[in-house]
Design brief:
It is built from 12 helices and 14 strands. The protein is α/β, with parallel strands linked by helices. The protein has a domain at 2-172 and 198-228 and 290-308: Rossmann fold (3-Layer(aba) Sandwich).
Length: 327
């Protein structure tokens, strides 16, 4: 079996690549920095040049005719300063890549809960029957991609997954959380308790592989995927602190202060490098108090269910940071 994987140097893609190298005869992956990819393989204790790994140029128009059986289109911009940046990669680049693939290729596209939006008012969770109401440029770009997939590629075997917050090893975006948890004083945005769906990256990898196996029988839809039990922002902070074995005090920060900080980060280049995830656009996702999705539909169709809880997921993330000398 042959796989095309985009986003192999990112968080989810890097985890998926480690599994794919042991399960596929050939893995084709476009990257902007081959040096970074090779260094990551060395860091994992692997041969930097596995015989079944084939590095492609970043532009789809330059890809050779690799004829994959499966394709995971997982590359995307998570944090940008303009709407055009999101759409350029999350929509235009992804579609150029899709057009290079043979019609028989089974394609899984990683979208996001952000494409649907926060949990509708007076509901416990969001499901596939709810209307999509993205509140950020990022979410709009993911939804725009999904709509084009359904309108222009309706005859293709394409499954779209909408994961929520993803946690696990190799996620550098959560490194600041664990560093903060090592201090007595911790902050959280917003005075209200906020509730989130989450998914361990290992469970997402398992789910993607299961979707590939059953894709021929799956309706070509967008599916939410999440752990069974949602978690609160307080539980996430407490869990990270437990990993660090540090007791402390959590101080809520009013949302207007977070808005002001995100605006400051947007205009100060040095701050952008320190907190790239805090943009005025993505900060809008902080305001709703509930981002919970129901993943029952995909589980019912495939039998796949996430197995890892928050405690196990945070512990594996923390242990990874320790091994890498980042904490």
């Amino acid at each position: 079996m042959r796989l095309l994987l985009t986003g192999a140097t990112g968080f989810v893609g890097r985890n998926f690549l480690l599994r794919a190298l042991s399960q596929y005869d050939a893995v084709f992956t476009p990257v902007r920095s081959e040096e970074k990819l090779r260094a990551q393989l060395v860091a994992e204790g692997l041969d930097p040049r596995p015989g079944n790994l084939h590095v492609l140029p970043p532009e789809p128009l330059d890809w050779p005719d690799c004829r994959p059986d499966h394709a995971l289109l997982g590359a995307g911009v998570l944090f940008a300063r303009s709407r055009d940046e999101y759409f350029s990669t999350n929509v235009d680049w992804t579609l150029r890549g899709l057009r290079t693939l043979p019609d028989a290729c089974r394609v899984t596209v990683l979208s996001s809960l952000s494409a649907g939006g926060p949990t509708p008012a007076r509901q416990d969770s969001r499901s596939e029957t709810d209307s999509d109401t993205p509140i950020t440029w990022y979410g709009e770009s993911k939804l725009a991609l999904e709509r084009i997939l359904r309108s222009d590629f309706s005859r293709r075997n394409i499954t779209v997954l909408r994961p929520p917050m993803i946690l696990g090893a190799r996620d550098t975006a959560t490194l600041p959380l664990f560093r903060m948890a090592g201090h007595f004083l911790r902050i959280k945005p917003g005075l209200q308790t906020k509730t989130y769906s989450f998914l361990a990256v290992e469970d997402l990898v398992d789910g993607i592989l299961e979707v590939f196996q059953q894709a021929a029988a799956l309706p070509p839809e967008s599916y939410y995927v999440s752990a069974a039990r949602p978690v609160t922002d307080g539980e996430i902070l407490a869990g990270a602190a437990a990993c660090r074995k540090v007791r402390g005090l959590t101080v809520p920060i009013p949302q207007p202060a977070v808005r002001l900080l995100s605006a400051l980060v947007d205009v100060v280049p040095s701050l952008r490098k320190q907190v790239p995830s805090l943009t005025r656009d993505r900060a809008r996702e902080i305001w709703p108090s509930r981002w919970v999705a129901d993943g029952a539909r995909l589980s019912g169709l495939t039998g796949w269910r996430p197995r890892r809880d928050l405690e196990e997921t945070l512990r594996s993330t923390h242990n990874y940071f320790l091994r890498e000398g980042l904490l």
